[in-house]
Amino acid sequence: MHSGAEGNNGMENGQGATDEPCPNGALVRMRGPGGPATILLVVGLLIGLFAAIVMQVGRMLDRQSLTAQAVPEVIDLNEADAATLTLLPGVGPVMAQAIVDYRQTHGPFHDLEALGNVRNVGPITMRKIAPYVRCGQTAQP
Question: How far apart are CA 100 and CA 108, in angstroms?
Fold first, then answer.
């Protein structure tokens, strides 16, 4: 014999819970929203999140390949303007201008290591740009 809740098949009991019939005929108390609509909502949100992550990873990969394609053969650190320096991977407008300012104040770069004296240019940035730059006539290793 079932409890007095039998008469509430699928109906709200006034406390935010519903009584849902199970395949064996018993009633199960469901608290809050539930059922297929909630499951579809959660699955949809998870799919949307996954799609956003995949798109972001794709954009990051596109940026890396565009950087490799956009950089001319080799940029001379002693002749390039700020706009040209922004073509280098990891170099934005602020860092590019800092490189130009440093060069104007301290004179030409004699080697890539001297670039480490520029504010915010660290070993990671130097490693990223090394294949694309030179100081004067010869490419830097």
Answer: 10
